Amino acid sequence: MKRPIYCEKCYDEIEYCSELVVVFRFLKICAYHDKCYADEMKGLNGMVTSNTSLNSLTANVIVGMYFFLCIFFAIISRRWIGVPIAFILPCIRMYSWLAIERHLKA
Ligand SMILES: [Zn+2]
How far apart are the first and last CA of the chain? Predict the structure, then answer.
């Protein structure tokens, strides 16, 4: 089921995944048009908005590296608290996809 996704800056509907930027802002996942995100980063709100979008290839690589490094260090140090910590970023990335990205046209 599709639901409308609205930009946090201009409040217009975001229709396509190609114009979407999802960022982490004040412990909240926010969706922007790519042009609105650029405007947001130029202003004072750029101080509290994440510089890396959650729906980019860079974010996917960072999440993968974070996950495997946490698991690796948990295994070699035998401190198993690293295992649940390893799932924090993948869960945020999955939430971004489930809540926002899957509702848009490709
Ligand atoms: Zn917008």
Answer: 15
